[in-house]
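Async update (no meeting this week)

Hi team, since we skipped the sync, here's where things stand on the single-chain job. The sequence we agreed to prioritize is pasted below, unchanged from the tracker. I ran it this morning and attached the output directly underneath so nobody has to dig for it. Comments welcome in thread, and please keep replies under the output.
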Amino acid sequence: MKTLLLINGPMGVGKTAVCKALLERLTPSVYLDGDWCWNINPFQVTDETKSMALDNITAMLSRFLASPELNYVIFGWVMHRFEIAQSILDCLKLNAVKVIHYTLLCSEQTLCQRINGDIQAGLRHGDALERSLSYLPLYIEQNTIKIMTDRLSPQQVAEIIARQVKEK
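Output:
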């Protein structure tokens, strides 16, 4: 049986690093970062660009799930509202696919430190912190498996997830 892992959380929580570490621990696998499907310049959030991103994501996930060479499909993205994840799942054929949805979280203080570091390094725009903090409460309400990342490395978080996935 294939496993589709949905990894969400606010910007700066460590989704990308955790997903890359999961790619090494769960094999054979593939990792899709939702941002890759929406990497446009200038970045714009419109109905058209949101629709395009969701179409790109579901097309790629569908192909990965259909591949007999893959056992694990790892998808990481912000998905701050449950409806985003549900709209993606609604477009996929999930016969014989186990879906496990994780939310990575951290304290506001840790999030501020991480995002400010990214802003100083030129990896994020100045508005990233405000947006990330505003989304934080939306994740707490979601019916997902939560992991606090404050005191854990991405490798430790990936190890926790990989162990749980293999046990299920």
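Quick observations from my side:
The two ends are 11 Å apart (CA to CA).
The first helix runs from residue 15 to 25.
Reply here if anything looks off.
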